[in-house]
Design a protein that fits this description.
With 218 residues, the protein is of the alpha+beta class. The protein is built from 10 helices and 7 strands. Strand 3 and strand 4 form a beta hairpin.
Length: 218
């Protein structure tokens, strides 16, 4: 059931935690930072949360004005959840928390969502600003993302690109390992955990642009 518990504390930190401090709430926010997602997408990304618990968190966050539910226009017609403008203001908070958490030991059998890895990649990659703009079609498990590297920055959004110079398919754990150690690229292609088509120099160029600590946030 949804919770209405409060710390009853006037401090802004306590009042913020009244809104997003429940278990899974900030991870829902994390998953929506790159764009709208369907309930099934969120359920798959947050596999440790039951359907009922996830529904409760979504209902609470919606009721508090952090997220909203919206129906996509035809031909999709599906319902998605997305951050409101106020909810999007949590992005620097969530990313800073992820950076702080990198020093916490990993759990025994960690999961890693596609959004988590892509958020890390977006923040850690600093492409050569003089390099030509490059669009990547990225398939992680069964979801497709568009990644654009241009003017020294990387942008990521869900969905198919109109066109792409390179297409690569893998899983979040493999991509995370490649971000940590780009020298594993050839081995990942050889064992089939990574499939790449298109410009052969584009993916190595992206991996070599990683300059932040070597682990995904999230």
């Amino acid at each position: 059931m949804p919770t209405s518990r409060s710390y009853g504390d006037a401090c802004g930190i306590a009042r913020a935690l009244d809104v997003v401090g429940e278990r899974w709430a900030l991870l829902v926010v994390r998953e929506l930072l790159l764009g709208p997602q369907r309930f099934s997408d969120l359920r798959r990304a947050l596999a440790g949360a039951s359907s009922n618990l996830l529904s409760d968190r979504l209902r609470e966050l919606d009721g508090r004005g952090v997220i909203r539910r919206r129906k996509l226009p035809p031909p999709a017609g599906s319902w998605v959840y997305e951050l409101t403008d106020w909810g999007r203001e949590l992005e620097p908070v969530v990313l800073a928390l992820g950076g702080w958490g990198l020093r916490v030991p990993l759990p025994p059998a960690p999961t890693l969502s596609a959004t988590s890895v892509l958020l890390y990649l977006r923040g850690a990659a600093h492409p050569d600003p003089e390099a030509p703009p490059t669009t990547y079609r990225v398939q992680l498990d069964d979801r497709v993302w568009t990644l654009r590297a241009a003017e020294g920055q990387v942008q990521v959004e869900p969905g198919e690109p109109t066109s792409a110079e390179v297409d690569f398919r893998t899983d979040p754990a493999t991509l995370n390992a490649l971000l940590a150690d780009p020298t594993m690229l050839d081995a990942a292609v050889s064992d089939g955990s990574l499939v790449v088509t298109g410009d052969p120099s584009a993916l190595p160029r992206l991996l070599q642009a990683i300059t932040a600590p070597t682990s995904a946030a999230g």
